[in-house]
Amino acid sequence: MTLTLESACEMHPQVALRPEPFGALAYHYGNRRLVFLRHPDMVKVVSTIGQHSSIRDALHATGVDQARWPAFISALSSLTTSEIIRVR
């Protein structure tokens, strides 16, 4: 699924994040997928995305530089495929 800055998302309720030195491991207990989040900024966005009305608001609130937003949209879109996050 392709997300936009206006998409409202949340972390899937069956996902747990485990902090690691490189970022975090995201494990989905339902489909048993393990995903590496390789940057602390991505961990912040994924863990708080449900608290914001859009991806744009989440990126702004977590202090991600606007020049990096397209890369984050791409990464978040791939996380919907793994069911780590979902559209609300």
Automatic annotation (TrEMBL):
One Pfam family cited in the UniProt record for this chain: MftB_chaperone
Protein name per its UniProtKB record: Unannotated protein
Organism: freshwater metagenome
